[in-house]
What does this fold into?
Amino acid sequence: MAVMQRRRFLQSVAAAGAGPLAAQSGKRPNFVFILADDLGHGDLGCYGQSRIATPYLDALAKSGTRYTQAYSGSTVCAPSRCCLMTGKHTGHATVRGNKKPEVGLLKDEPTVASLLKGAGYRTGLFGKWGLGGPGTSSVPNDHGFDQFYGFLDQLHAHNSFTEHLWDNRHETFLTENWFNARKTFANDKFTERALKFIGAQSPADPFFLYLPYTIPHANNERGRIDENGIDVPDLGIYKDKPWPEVERAFAASITRMDTQIGEVVRTLAARGLIDNTLIIFSSDNGPHAEGNHRATYFESSGAVRGMKRDLYEGGIRVPAIVNWRGRTQGGRVSDAPWAFWDILPTFCAMAGAKAPAGIDGIDIRPTLLEGRAVARDHFYWEFHEGGFAQAVRQGDWKLVRQKPKFDLELFRLSDDPRELRNLAGQYPDVAKRMSTLFKSARTDNANWPV
It folds into this structure.
C-alpha cells in the first residue's frame, strides 16, 4: 500500500519541472509554507541522509528546487518565526528570543498573513505559532489568520501528546490524552486540519496555508525522566533497527511528517489546486541535541558545523525546497542565499500586495522561481541566550561573535563552509568593516537587552 501511495505521489508531481517559467495564467498563486521544527540540514534524503526515509520531500526536491544556502530567521524557534512572519531580521524583530513566551508581536504589526488577507487571500495556520501566549494581543487571529488550530507558545508545544490545543481563540481539550494516555498526536491533527482547509478552497480564490509542525523537536520535559524524549505514536519502519530508542523515535517522527506532507500535496492535486500553488518546505533552525537525542547520530548538520543555538552555519542554514508545478525547474540545486525575512516581501510581490516600509527582506522571486541570487548588502543575526551573540554575512564573508569567548571569527564560506579557519587576523580590514554592522544593522529592544 505504501509503495502504491508513493508511486501515485510521484506521478502527481512528476510534471512539476516541465512547464516554462513564464506565468501560465493571470491568477495570483496560492502559498503553502510547511515548517519543520529543529530539522537539520542533513536530515533529509535529498540532502544526503541515508538512514531516514523522506521519499515525499525528496520527490518535491526532484521536481522543484533544493537550496543549499537558505537561512532561518534565528537559531531558535520564536525569533525565527517572527522573522518569517514580519520580514525583519533579529536586529529589528519584535521577538528576539525564546525565554519570554509572554512577549509577542506588536498589536498592529503587519505579518505576511495579514497582508495577504488584506489582498483577498484566505489564510490558515495549523501547528505551532510561538509568538505570544493566551491572553495576549499576539495570537494568530490577531495577525491575519482566518483559521488557527494548534499551539500558541513554544513551551506548550514541547508535548505533542498534549491535553489541549487552541482552536482559533478557544481552548479545546483532547480528553483522550488525559492522565498521560498519549493517544492523539498533535501533528496528525495539524495535517487533518490542513487537509480540511485545502478541501474548502476554490480555484477562483487564492489562499495561504502555513503548516508549522513540531517535528522533530524534543519533548524536553519528558526527556528528563525518560530515555526517549522524542514524541511519536510508533517507531514505524525503524522499530527493529539496532539504534537507541530515542534515535528510532527521531527517525520515525521525520518519516511520519514526510508522509503527511505527501498527503498535503496529493490533496492539492486532487482539488485541482497544485498548478497554481507555490509550496515551500523548510525548518525553523538547525538540529537539536535535546530529549537525549544526539545531533551527530544521523549527522543532522550535514556538511556544515554547529547546531541549534549556534550562529555557525549549522545553527541557521536550513533545508529548503521550493516547488511550483510548471514554474520551478525540476531537479535544480541552487546555492543562491536567502533568508526567512525575504518571504514576506516576495509573497506580497507575487500576490499584488504592498509590503510595509522598514523591513529587512527583499523580493527574491528570481531565487525562488529560477534559482538565481538577488543582490543584497548583508544578512544579520543576533542571539540572546547565554550572552549576546551576533553574526553577519556579506558575500562569501561571514563574521561571528559568540560564546564561549565572543572573539571575532571571520570565515570565507566559499573556501571553508565548515567555518574551521578563523581569518580575522589575516584579513583585519575585512573583519573591522564587517564588525561595524554589529552596531548599524540593529536597533535596541527593551525586551532583549544587550
